[in-house]
Amino acid sequence: MKVTSAFNRERAIVRLAGRLDGEWAEHLSDTLGEMLRRGARTVLVEMQGVTYISSAALKVLVRHAADFAALRGELTVMTPSPAARDTLTRAGLGELIFPASDRNTQPIAISKELERRGQYTQEWRFSESPAGRPVFELSPHTNEGSLTCLVHGDPATVERGGIQPADCTTLECTDDVIAVGVGAIGSDFAECREQMGELIAGAGAVAYLPTEGSAVPDYLLTLGGRAPSAVLADGISCRGSFAHLARFQLPRGQDPVTLSELATNALDVNTADSAGFAMVAEVSALVGAWRRRSPAAASGLHFDCPAIRDDLSFTTERVHQGTTALVVGVVARRPSPPLSAQLRPIAPGSEIQAHFHAVVFSYAPVPLRTVSPLTMVPALFANQSVRGILHLLADDRGAAGVGESEFLRGLVWSSPIVNVGVAVGAGV
């Protein structure tokens, strides 16, 4: 991304070129904030060379447009590229595209789709009787709910590095899809090859941790009815509907709920050997790892010390206490190929295997009356800051380890997996 600016009294111009992703959204926010502090009241943002706009950047534009409007100023987008115009229009931000002489002075509006998704719903209702450990309450949604699973890529190929287009698949992250793996937001391999890192998708949103640059999380939501796309080098996607919802919270004096306990409960509730899982929960602590280098790197992963530090980062202590997280993944007892290649033991000595990723937000209390993922997930992205993305793992180093991820309260949607297939690479 290239950002240049010019300032003349109360008017400023900011010229952008390249991918306006999560990292550069922060730079743009800093630039616009500095314009405000220096007294600019009219800012023109030129986007002729912009090839991509993430939802993180859209949030920056909306916030600063409101800031300038509060001071009787304005922020206007000039000469947007076709890609930029399309994204801004689908997000309902057409008011930002045209100069003031061509539009009325109505407040900046968020798209009706995001507004609709932000409404509370009573679609799911809880039963009064608890199940299993006392912290759980169950709410069956539909006995017809189930998931079909696809395995993407080959972990061994990704580990060796130097992946090619034929090793990857493109995933459309629609409302009915959950996914975890190694990948990037985009529509083709050329766009994504240097960026690929930990990726998570659910409820029409996709987020990933780029391995190029400063590794600032980036994300994209469904806009204007069009779902975002991601390129996966490796991972799992599930499509379908959820059959059950478990609500959990801690009675006074109880220890936090572990990820393995929540995963076991999902299998038990669905009376299945494998299940798909999505959760929004308040975090006690997270434990995991994340990639620092794309699998397109020719040399692959190094597992010897100290070289491994160039390829992977691990949590050496419990992290992200006091945040809220979206956790997505697959859990299974005694999985068979091809699913088994994507799963690891969820805790030391456990027969249960899993693959979970988490996107971490600034703290938001889980509103237990709001129980649709299509409401909660977009609202988290829209209203909270994204703190990190990681692959959740148990630290099995005995007394020196930090255990597994733990949670205080939240909502878990799950369904049995009824079929597992292999996604076919399309040379993206």
Secondary structure topology:
Layout: E1 2-8, E2 11-20, H1 22-37, E3 42-53, H2 55-70, E4 74-78, H3 82-90, H4 112-117, E5 136-140, E6 147-153, H5 155-160, E7 169-172, E8 177-185, H6 189-192, E9 197-202, E10 205-208, E11 218-221, E12 229-240, E13 244-249, E14 257-258, H7 259-270, E15 274-285, E16 288-291, H8 308-311, E17 312-314, E18 324-333, E19 344-345, E20 352-361, H9 373-383, E21 386-392, E22 406-422
Parallel strand pairs: 2-3, 3-4, 6-22
Antiparallel strand pairs: 1-2, 5-13, 6-12, 7-12, 8-9, 8-12, 9-10, 10-11, 13-22, 14-22, 15-18, 15-22, 16-17, 16-21, 18-20, 19-20, 20-21
Task: Tell me what you see in this structure.
- The chain folds into two domains: 2-110, 2-Layer Sandwich (Transcription Regulator spoIIAA), CATH 3.30.750; 129-428, 60s Ribosomal Protein L30, Chain: A (2-Layer Sandwich), CATH 3.30.1330.
- The chain is 20% helix and 37% strand.
- The chain has nine helices and 22 strands.
- It has helices at 22-37, 55-70, 82-90, 112-117, 155-160, 189-192, 259-270, 308-311, 373-383; strands spanning 2-8, 11-20, 42-53, 74-78, 136-140, 147-153, 169-172, 177-185, 197-202, 205-208, 218-221, 229-240, 244-249, 257-258, 274-285, 288-291, 312-314, 324-333, 344-345, 352-361, 386-392, 406-422.
- A hairpin with a 6-residue loop joins strand 19 and strand 20.
- The radius of gyration is 22 Å and the shape is globular.
- Mean pLDDT is 85; it is low at 102-122 and 128-132.
